[in-house]
Design goal:
This is Protease HtpX homolog. Its cofactor is Zn(2+). It is built from twelve helices and four strands, in the order H-H-H-E-H-E-E-E-H-H-H-H-H-H-H-H. The protein is of the alpha+beta class. The protein has a domain at 14-64 and 160-217. The longest helix is centred in the last third of the chain and has 48 residues, at 189-236.
């Protein structure tokens, strides 16, 4: 797993590669352990557990681009509809020597962008109409280079897989409670006792699994955003334009109505900038993104290096 993709000019990032490999290894161990605990506790239902976990994983991974697009209200657009957007992505893909992803737009006033997809050939880059209205061409180029670097580094696929375990833990718990998996209709005292134990242990295990996967994805998410900022600044040679876009987008998001921000928050890990208010940004300890100050400081450092 390379953090620059096999055939792109985005700067390789060994730190990102190491973190992605470590996260996938730990998530894999957690996934196997969680499934094993469920099979032991719900012995008669193990075929359903394996089928459910496998089916959810395939659906989440294989259709991640479609699922995310639909959830965020995005739709694919043609070069005739958005010539400037397509033209900028064409130039950046040629500069980075990478395949062009599908291009989408979400009708949303919140200025933001995201990339998703299981690999560079099955990826999509989406921007909101709010972003297109607010950014200058060079600022938009910086944001799009940031999103394309996520595709080239393949960290979008890793985040999709890493976030899956929390989804699975919640789904299994709900099914265990509301289906007949806990013992069916004919129970004796022994079955009742086993069911009671399972009813206690499964939610506890699910909460632990969710908490660990949450922490792992947050740590990886913050680093991958810094890596994408670095790669975009180095590819375009204009870190100041990306810094300007970051400042503008973050300030404008803080002015978006709280109701709209809450609807977008479940997808924060995929966004260019998190959908949070200024007050939340100051208090959010487990954010999906590094602070604006940290991102701007890194871009200022890159600008100084390029100047020399």
């Amino acid at each position: 797993m390379s953090a620059s993709g096999p055939h792109t000019r985005f700067a390789p990032d060994r730190g990102l590669t190491g973190r992605m490999v470590t996260t996938m290894f730990l998530i894999g161990l957690l996934y196997v352990g969680f499934t094993g605990v469920l099979i032991v506790l719900l012995r008669g239902a193990w075929p359903l557990i394996v089928l459910l976990s496998g089916g959810l994983f395939v659906a989440q991974f294989w259709f991640s681009d479609k699922i995310t697009e639909r959830a965020m209200g995005a739709h694919e657009v043609t070069p005739e509809q958005y010539p400037q957007l397509h033209g900028t992505i064409d130039r950046l893909c040629a500069l980075a020597d990478m395949p062009k992803p599908r291009v989408a737009v979400a009708d949303n006033d919140m200025p933001n962008a995201f990339a998703t997809g299981r690999n560079p050939q099955k990826s999509v880059v989406c921007v909101t109409t709010g972003l297109l209205r607010r950014l200058e061409p060079e600022e938009l180029e910086g944001v799009l280079a940031h999103e394309l670097s996520h595709v080239a580094h393949r960290d979008v696929a890793v985040m999709t897989v890493a976030g899956f375990l929390g989804v699975l833990a919640g789904a299994i718990t709900r099914i265990a409670f509301y289906s007949g998996m806990m013992g069916g209709g004919n129970r004796n005292n022994n079955n009742d006792s086993n069911a009671a134990i399972a009813m206690i242990i499964i939610p506890l295990v699910s909460m632990v699994v969710y908490a660990i996967s949450f922490l792992l994805t947050r740590v990886l998410s913050r680093y991958r955003e810094l890596a994408a900022d670095r790669a975009a600044a180095q590819l375009t040679g204009r870190p100041s334009a990306l810094a300007s876009a970051l400042t503008k987008v973050t300030g404008q998001i803080a002015a978006i109505p709280t109701k709209d921000l809450r609807q977008a928050q479940p997808y924060n890990a995929f966004y260019f900038a998190p959908a949070i208010s200024a007050r939340e940004a100051a208090t959010q300890l487990m954010s999906t993104h590094p602070s604006l100050e940290q991102r701007l400081a890194q871009l200022a450092k890159i600008s100084a290096e390029l100047g020399r």
